[in-house]
Amino acid sequence: MRSRWRTLDRQLLRDVLAIAVAVGFVGLSFGAIAVASGMPAWAVLAMSIFVFAGGSQFMAVGLLAAGSPIAAVVGGLLLNARHFPFGLAIADVLSGGPVRTPGDGSARPRRHWGRTLIGAHLMVDESVAFALAQPDRPRRVQAYWLTGVLLFSLWQLGTWIGVEIGSAVGDPARYGLDAAFPAALLALLLPRLKDPAALRVALAGAGLAVAASLLPTMTGVMVPAGLPVLLALLGLLAAGRAPRPAPTSDRVSDHDEASDSASDHNEEGARR
Amino acid sequence: MSPATLIVVIAVLGVGTYGMRLAGAVLGGRLQLSPAVGRILPLAAVALLAALAVTAAVTEAGEVAGIARPAGVLAGVIAAWRKAPFIVVVLVAAATAALLRLAGVP
Predict the structure, then answer these.
(1) Residue ranges per domain, chain A?
(2) Measured distance CA(A180)–CA(A162) in Å, rounded
């Protein structure tokens, strides 16, 4: 574990801190809004610790205040269902086995259950996005844990301060924090969109999700929260076929692309 | 909101969310994935994250989210595209949205 942190990338630490501070402020406004809606402090703090998923927490508080606890649970779970495919996508990061696998990395590392069980709770959009933005497994593991631990800590701290100072907190939109989160996610995704298949999938998925989100206003059809984002999985149909593995020329060009983007990363890291 | 209701809501939401987080992580490591599925899974995460970011940028509770927020996000993305450091991206996005709102743009 220690060797993982000795090589901690300072660039990565700075990037993660930037978003963790923004998340802390969102947690602060969550705490304040929840208390203002009439929720007792212990419940607000417990929700941040045990649910740790901002969107569903805001929604649950709103629906609880409106007197519909069942909708709060069902809506929150639907909103959080995206964590299942997230987990599938970053299962190698959460296996918890040795960070550096010998050879070509095709051998599956042995599972370390403690790390899987704790790591799963740290799965949020940002920790997944930071992990996916890294070029190799050791850095994916490092980015995931760093983001997860920092965000969890600041989310709790933010919630607690928000509960304490309550209604003194203004609307987070006044500070533009609502724009920071989507911009950060897109910035993390950007390098991956060099792959044309990923770009097609991202555009199709985002288009479908926005269309589905706006459906209630346009047509009056009710769409449960969380469903539009899950509909984005249909965007995978735009991925097209995998490049054939058999011809050697394809292999070589694939490999070149991968190492190019990896060295891009290193140069950027060194430059900053 | 009785304490019992709150406890049940938080417990079910917490356990359910954790279950979905853990299920993906465990199943993904356990199944022998075909190369096609191995290729699709990271793309699935890309689709979900892009959808999440774009819906959060342009919609609010099923309606269009005004101008300031999408403009802020766009400014951040342009900064990222021009290879600005990550913290600059975050600050540009927030500052653009905040200044537009200060100027009275919704």
Answers:
(1) 2-190
(2) 19
